[in-house]
Amino acid sequence: MQGLASIIQTHGRRIVIALPLAWLIVFFMLPLIEVFEVSFTTARRGIPPFAPLWGFGEDGFFTNFNLENYKLLFAYWEDYFWPAGNSLRLAFFSTLICLVFAYPMAWWIARSNPLHRIILLVLVMLPFWTSSLLRIYALIGLLNPNGFINTMLLHLGVIDAPLQMMQTDFSIYMGMVLTYLPLMILPLYAVMVRLDGDLIEAAVDLGASRFAVLRTIILPLTMPGIIAGCLLVFIPAVGEFVIPALLGGPGQAMIGKTVWLEFFRNRDWPVASAVAVVLLALLAVPIIYARYQDGRRSQFEIDQEDAA
Amino acid sequence: MAPFIRIKNVVRRFGDVVAVDNLSLDINKGELFCLLGASGCGKTTLLRMLAGCESVDSGSIEIDGSDMAHVSAADRPVNIMFQNYALFPHMTVANNIAYGLRRAGLPKSEIAERVYELLRLLRLGGMESRKPHQLSGGQRQRVALARSLARRPKLLLLDEPLAALDKKLREDTQFELVDIQERLETTFIVVTHDQEEAMTLASRIGVMDAGKLVQVDAPRILYERPQNQFIADFLGSVTFIDGMVSKVGKGILSIAAAVPITAADTGGFAAGDTVRMAIRPEKILLTRAATGALNEMPVTIEDLAFTGVASNYRVIGPDGLRLKIHQPNQRGAETALEWEEAAFASFDPADVVLLQD
Amino acid sequence: MKSAVAWPALILGCLGFGLLYIPITVMVIYSFNASRLVSVWGGFSTHWYSALLGNEQVLDALGKSIWIAVNAATYSTVFGVLIALAFVRFGNFRFRLLLSALASTPLVMPEVVTGLSLLLLFIAMEGVFGWPAGRGLDTIIIAHSTFGMCFAAVVVQSRLREFDMALEEAAADLGARQPFIFFSITLPVIAPAVIAAWLLAFTLSFDDLVIASFVSGPGSSTLPIVIFSKVRLGVTPEINALATIMIALIASCVVVAGLLFYSRSARTTSSSNRER
Prior knowledge:
heterotrimer; A: about 300 residues; mainly alpha; MetI-like fold; 2 strands; C: about 280 residues; globular
């Protein structure tokens, strides 16, 4: 034990850094490189169902590098690039809708007394802790032609025929909001709870109307929370699979579902990889922006620690 | 005999800022020494260097003859009482106190004995099983002190030990601290920005400014005989008068200022020298009628503050000379002086401090 | 201030909460519906619950999911604490930028990409090293730990930043050294955050469908995989029952935790107000 303790003392720092670094390099970075590689090979029978990218055979070094998969994506534009654009569209509006609901909810929670605050936070987090799959499934029971809403409306005589709510943009938006609302609320809440109430009182004292206070004081000061929340929702939403799979129809094709179908239904792993690469390319800018925002905040924190 | 603690030419920099600037200081065994200074003067940095929490850029620190250069904080015969106590929140009072003893590998029975001893010494009987959040501020302070004394360090460092206590508690604790120190005969170094605290606690005070030691002396000497303007101004209240030496007599100097002043000659001044003088407010006598004493001048009362036991006056004398006077209030039927009244101020030549700046 | 929250905000707020809870509430109600159909209320019945408890496939998947989640959460927390330590305590160390990028990107990576990429890696590794032999519980645990540790790191990091370093200095002053200081002082004090991180990683692992689908093998179906295969075909009341049970369990845990937290913070603030 003494030996172990002294090893930890001299190399402690290096071990603490090396362990997670090694893990993440092997199980996160390397896999992404794999995806990239496989997107340049061809599908074939066997296990695994694709040709290796390179290797050494009887004639020495060989490679199966080709751009067929990408050409396929471009050739079958509607099957691949349309879902990509659609994903961006659906994710964008989902983020917006989440924001519209989350903003007042977060404000309500932040401005409550500590007891109410905990209760409301628990209420917000409770759905988050339950499986999102089950929540989306619950939505099916609600929106189906013979689901709860239609049954109620028909029963009350408000409508004559069931409304088509499933497999529409509407059902997607519902599913997204249901899944991602807590994720949008939390960063907003974190920023709002730090907002000094005196600032609002000062603005009111200086003659600002309610709307002006919102526009000139609250919005600008909560902007970091808004940006964080939007990124936290938009980026995963683009690559969502379960929501379009369970709630969406052909008009709600999303790129995450495309990757899945290519992999599980068409069993074309190289094309699936190529689509995955496209998905990453789509998200490259928002991801880099999110990292940049993160970096700004943590560099600020490093400087604070160094100064202390 | 060599001093117990020898700090030699110690320097510590943080980037461009020199926190401790070539500082040397000797401290004797069993002393209660105070490092006094405003925030940012480097006193806390010096404390941390003694403890081993901060590295030394150049210079050396010796404790009881041993150079501390390569000795880590855990191995030094030094312990700290932290400003905010730093009590381990998840441990009981007893475990907090015992922590250092367990690290030292003492047998369980001895640990229990020492903990009991300290609980008694610091009047913490009955609190052993409580956790810090169940204690009052004063109790937490005593636990912090007990914990830092547990290992019987050769040197105990106290970082603003009384800062977090309210006034009444602070006064009581000041005496208790001195009492404990005398009983244990441990060398204490207290860091504080509170001059009253420093003067009450310490046998010697080192006043620091901008990383340097300005003057090291017993409290009385620092107060009565400040070496320069900084010290005079830093401790207590003071009136400065500028003048020029007109004549050097036998043991006295005649100085021309707003009024002619006679001061005791402390050496080092010749006729023609400009000099800055400092006079403490309690050394100036304020009377309604002239008494014929030395250094007497007519003054008008500009401002006064009645504080119960005494009054603080601001008076204006000849040539716009302003004096700060502190005087116990009159006994008997004599009426007190009021605003804008005329009076006379005088002071003894021995009480005039000639500053060497 | 007249009222902290304006009425439009309250309306939107209530709508939001409603949106979050109405689907779940309806699902819970219908788990007691004797009839299979949503359009027909067949009377109160708990037979779907008994059907659920007899469903071996679901129970088996539940057991696997719990096993995976416990393992993944533990690995995630350990590595997450290491990552948090590195970022909060080690300043600008050599690989900081790289570790930062690697530890934050999984948080925003689409699950299909993570799942596919890990599967390809496992296959490649199997080809070169012979391990992992086939996909199963182990590969799922590895996959979940990988993104779990990034989430755990975020939770622990914020608490670690607030941690009062004077406590560690006091411990060092009293003769302790690392890593003893970490285990005797730091870890107990940040324990609530570490527990929260474990719970978060557990939930993320337990709920994961997409990644598990990619990296699981025959015979290692997790609960979400089983649920998904059932619900594609439409509403299945046994799933309603399962959902209700899970929600009830989680709800009670969260409520208990919330109460504990509230009473704890109330206790510490009231005692610190008792200054003499």
